Amino acid sequence: MAGTVIGEGLVVEGDITGDEEIVINGTLRGRLTTSDAVTVGGTAVVGADITGASLSVAGQVIGDVTASERVDIQAGGKLVGDIKAARFTIADGASFKGNVDMED
Amino acid sequence: MSVVGAATRVTGRISGTGALRIEGAVKGDVNVQGDTELAEGGSLEGNLQGEGLDIGGSLLGDAHARGAIAVRATASVRGELRGSEVSIEAGARVSVRLDTDFELDFGGAARRR
Question: Could you give the ipTM of this predicted complex?
Answer without folding.
Answer: 0.92
